Amino acid sequence: MSKRPRTLDSFFSPPATKRSRQAGGDTSKVANGETTPSQLSNHPTYPFAVPHLPPEITDILNFAPAQEARIINDRPDLDLLYFQPYIPKEIQRPLFDFLRREFFFYKVQYKIKRGPVETQINTPRYTTVFGLDETSIFNDAGEVIDSATGKPPSGKDAYTCKPRPIPECLDMLRRLTENTTGSKFNFALVNYYASGADSISYHSDDEKFLGPDPCIASFTLGAKRDFLLRHKKTPAAHPSESQPMKLPLASGDMVLMRGKTQSCWEHSIPKRKGGEAERGRINITFRRAMTKGGTANYYRYNVGDGGVFKWDGGRGEMVAWKGGETG
Ligand SMILES: O=C(O)CCC(=O)C(=O)O
């Protein structure tokens, strides 16, 4: 039995009127001439349905990776594959526009306690997440069941969050990434950096729930942003600790971080003033969580308990979605 979450084809809701299936085709033209796919991924945990990618995108996405990867392993403990780009040029902009327009996003807030001091954290970017760790899968009805027993996890095994299946538009990219890399992924985390003021500070994705030496595929769409990597502090004080390596990630690029990269290095997207960053950037990471703790962590810090945001094309910004609270 497959242990990976699946896109729930049996769960696709009937398309809304505007998106209704046209005889003899999968897409429909709406009043403004935009082509929209007629199939949707839906699930009770989604605030609203997410369309499949239109064929204009999937037909070309199937040619990914657009370039062979460069191996970067010339510094201690660093092991990267750098695809420049992975996503073919013709669809970089349409794919960015599609994902920004169709996803539900969150601005997660939480408190951390360091000793007696409690600090309020306002995540400096929009986030959303889909997936389920290896212990469980979604059945055809969209319910979470234990991978081994086929029964809903209960008692001490019950989930405290509400896991969401990966929508088909992201699952296609996940499958391609698995084929390219030979690694398995069960989670998709999405960041939206609306401007150069949005960022992610130095951290490593080295949580126990990812297992040893996790392999993480990280995609960029939209604005180019600097990705900084530095070695974690060691008694030897290697130069890579104080002189970060900079990868200017451009639309369509993919970096695969593997080996000891997470256990020995940290990475960040620093704030930038003005310039290209103001156009917005989407980052997608595919990861493989091994335990329920990973699922709890990813939903806590990427969905949280606040309201939903959705792209407003007219205003050119994310706005609070009127449909309500988190699904
Ligand atoms: O946006 C990026 O390229 C990095 C994202 C990241 O480090 C993360 O989500 O943990």
TrEMBL record:
Query: What SUPFAM superfamilies does the database record attribute to this sequence?
Result: Clavaminate synthase-like
The lineage is:
Eukaryota, Fungi, Dikarya, Ascomycota, Pezizomycotina
Q: Where is this region: Disordered?
A: 1-46
* UniProt cross-references to Pfam families, sorted A to Z: 2OG-FeII_Oxy_2 (PF13532)
Residues where substrate binds: 206
- The identity of this protein, by name, is Fe2OG dioxygenase domain-containing protein
Q: Which residues bind 2-oxoglutarate?
A: 191, 193, 203, 267, 281, 285, 287
Gene Ontology molecular function: broad specificity oxidative DNA demethylase activity; cytosine C-5 DNA demethylase activity; ferrous iron binding
Start and end residues of each Fe2OG dioxygenase domain? 184-290
Question: Which Gene Ontology BP terms does the record give?
Answer: DNA alkylation repair
Annotated PROSITE patterns: FE2OG_OXY
Write out the biased-composition intervals (Polar residues).
Answer: 29-44
